[in-house]
Amino acid sequence: MKTKMILASSNPHKLREFREILEPLGCEVISQHDAGIDVEPDETGTTFEENSAIKARAIYEIAGCPVIADDSGLEVDALGGEPGVFSARYGGTRDDSAHNALVLSKLEGVPDEKRTARFVCAITYIDAEGVESHFLGKFEGRIGYEERGKNGFGYDPIFMVGGISSAEMTPDEKNAVSHRGKALRLLAEHIGGKTV
Fold it and tell me: Residues 6 or more apart from 145 whose CB is under 8 A from it?
């Protein structure tokens, strides 16, 4: 029998990534929308870990069943770690292209070696008994000079790894190295070692 868990998000891209890694373990991952939960808690944390926990606790309080939440974003070294926890609403908008344009404009004239950046993903998992576990994954790269590729979402088109952008990778290639893939594998190991 599959164990049902609610993802504290209705983002279809995130849902797909979570399912690709967790469903082979016998987990059925559904979005909070599909679970009939319509809450968006204020993400008042100053770290990805804090915001991830806020989201997971809010859904668990309503559903009382296993919940997974993640908070993730981009940290650009030349911008002092921006956009960081504000990645989803950088520049006061939720538009991916606007976010990418803003990062590229702020890095105008910054040489290649100083364009280092990373994606960070913090996952909070709350099991059926209410026990919380936390997992962190990082994906190192640099910021390119233009949007490239159609796979992925968010900052993927400007995030370069070697000669290609994260949005030019196949889903399997990305899951093998991405911040969310790394954090999800840690979660998978945790779940795989116990009854969920």
Answer: 104
Question: For residues 11 and 141, what is the distance between their CA atoms, to the nearest angstrom?
Answer: 24
Catalytic residues: 71
Residues 132-162 pLDDT 10s: 999 999 999 999 999 999 988 899 999 999 9
Q: Are 8 and 58 in contact (CB under 8 A)?
A: yes
Distance CA 136, CA 120 (A): 7
Walk me through the domains of the chain, giving residue ranges and CATH numbers.
3-192 (3.90.950.10)
For residue 26, count other CB atoms closer than 10 A to its CB: 12
3-7, strands of its sheet edge to edge: 27-31, 3-7, 67-76, 116-126, 132-143, 159-161, 164-165
**What pTM did the predictor assign?**
0.88
